[in-house]
Amino acid sequence: MIVADVMTRHVLSVAPESTVEEAAATMLERGFSGLFVVDAKGDLVGVVTEGDLLRRDEIGTQRHRPWWLRLLVSPGRQAADFTRTHGRRVSDVMTESVISVPHDAELETVVDLMERNRIKRVPVTQDGRVVGVVSRADLLRALVTRARKEAPVSADDRTVRAAILDGLDKQSWAPMTTLNVTVVDGVVDVWGTITNDDERRAICVIAENTPGVKSVRDHLVFVEPYSGTVIEAPDDKA
Description:
Histidine-containing Protein, Chain: A; alpha/beta; three-stranded mixed sheet; 2 domains; elongated; single chain; four-stranded mixed sheet
């Protein structure tokens, strides 16, 4: 899937010439922590967030540097800080550097951007224009929709077993020399030894995700590598 398949097309934005009060009121009304700033041509020129509005003269939270620190800060930087705390327009307080993603990007690209930059939503662009926005919620909706569309698959037991073994064989962590799988009427029994419970769950996940599998029974035996302690499989205990 690509970004265009999951993005929200109606983007709530604000113009650079809008007032700071208008931007703040819109964020409060819609429950958003930030707004994209789009000019009259539809070009993305910045983003304004709650963080951009924390230091404001109106509420007495503007930054007050001690005299000795003002000696170390350039006049240009001080002037820019003054504009951010006293300016009336969105263009005075917005962040101009905006992380965006093209409409035909893979979803993996979006997730990577969100994780690396710790952001919850990303504007989507096409030919430099904002055409949508993709958020974490949009990715969750895509997950739910994809799961609903997946219809049960009927496959013979031999095909199912071969698919499970192939899936396990592709994983470097899977202890293939000790594993075996049997399939009868879509019910999978997994046998073998493991050295930690993370392997147990991952092996069962591969089996559960294989088309045609109705249920999975866990017969994996945990063997502690240092002491040799053996712990029975959960399904065998039952």
